[in-house]
Amino acid sequence: MSTIRKLSAAAILALTWAWVASSFAQTVVFKDVFESPTSSATFWQETGDNDPTAPLVGPNWVVQETQPHYVQEVRHPQNLTNGFSYPSFAPASGSGDQYLHVMIGGEAWAPIATADQALMQGATALDLTTKIFGLSGHDGWSTSLRLAAFDSAATVGTNPAFDLRFLDGGYGVDGIVQYINSVGQPQTIPGMTFRVNTWQDLTVQADFVTDTFSVALNGVRVSGLSWFGGDLSKIQSVELTALNSFFRGGFDDFTIVVPEPAVVSLVTLGSLPLLFRRRRP
Q1: 171 and 142 in contact (C-beta within 8 Å)?
Q2: For 62-66, 110-114, 233-237, 266-270, which range has the lowest pLDDT when averaged over its residues?
Q3: Residue 46: pLDDT band by 50, 70, 90 thresholds?
Q4: Sign of the CA dihedral running 98, 141, 160, 26
Q5: Angle (nearest 5°) at CA 261 between 256 and 264
Q6: CA gap 134, 242 in Å, rounded
Q7: What's the pLDDT tens digit per position in 199-239?
Q8: Which of 211, 213, 252, 277 is a Cys-bridge partner for 131, taking CB atoms 3.0 to 4.6 Å apart?
């Protein structure tokens, strides 16, 4: 009897661990830390161009820009003046020395692979994490960033899912975060502050079951936000850009993951007979 109990306990433990492990399983569908190609910039922009190309995970970036320096991977230390008396960006936050620098007229699009789009259709959620930086109050620059997901291919920009805007409150002044609500109008997220001139952690979680999404910035989380346009589970591309002229901003450590449904490992299911096995005399 003791042997049966031991086997049953072992099977239960194996099933429990399988359930826990699968509950935390997730698939990374897009990831980039903007460390390649390497920038040679000694000021806030390249003399040529240094667009993001192949991410760590996912299809190649798609870039639209009216000037070569409107979207670039750049690197430079804080307060790099290059003959001017105004500071520039702080060092890139996260896992490297570079980040993605954007200006008005520049758009960086992260496409979602077709296979991963199919994966999302069978999932219940999507998590997007990144770091954002808004430069405001230096050398005439202000900031407004946009991060938006679409049920359409990169650069098409139709059928929006979530659409977020990060706006300073004036020259060098902290500001607000807005989203495009269910009637297509910008709406301020209550209790959330967009801090300028510092890197901030941003998380967007889309819930495919409730068709709502949540936003977390600087430790403040707001859930249950509705969207305008496309299906949250049918995101094909994500756009990173700045909104207005003479505005600058940055992104770093950009990741999109799809949590997988909690399922029991088929291999572990082979232990089920142990729960019911009887030892013959």
Answers
A1: yes
A2: 266-270
A3: low
A4: positive
A5: 135
A6: 10
A7: 999 999 999 999 999 999 988 999 999 888 778 899 999 99
A8: 252
Q: Is 273 exposed, middle or buried (0-12, 13-18, 19+ CB in 10 A)?
A: exposed
| Amino acid letter, residue 2 | S
Reported confidence tier of residue 15, pLDDT bands at 50, 70, 90 = very low
Q: Which helix (H) or strand (E) holds 109?
A: strand 106-111
The residue behind tokens 């992104």 is 251
Residues 6+ apart with CB under 8 A from 13: none
Q: Residue 262's closest CA among 67, 6, 97, 16? A: 16
Tokens 């929006």 — which residue? Answer: 160
Type and span of the H or E element at 14: helix 2-23
Tell me if 151 sits within 8 A of 236, measured CB to CB.
yes
Cα–Cα distance between 30 and 108 in angstroms, integer? 13
Domain 26-260: CATH class, spelled out: mainly beta
What the block records as the tokens of 78 is 């804080």
Q: Residues 60-107: pLDDT tens digits?
A: 999 999 888 889 998 765 554 444 445 556 666 666 888 998 988 899
| Residue 20, SS3 per DSSP | helix
User: Is-contact 112 58, C-beta < 8 A?
Assistant: yes
Using CA atoms, how far apart are residues 157 and 239, in angstroms rounded to an integer?
Answer: 8
The whole-number pLDDT of residue 67 equals 87
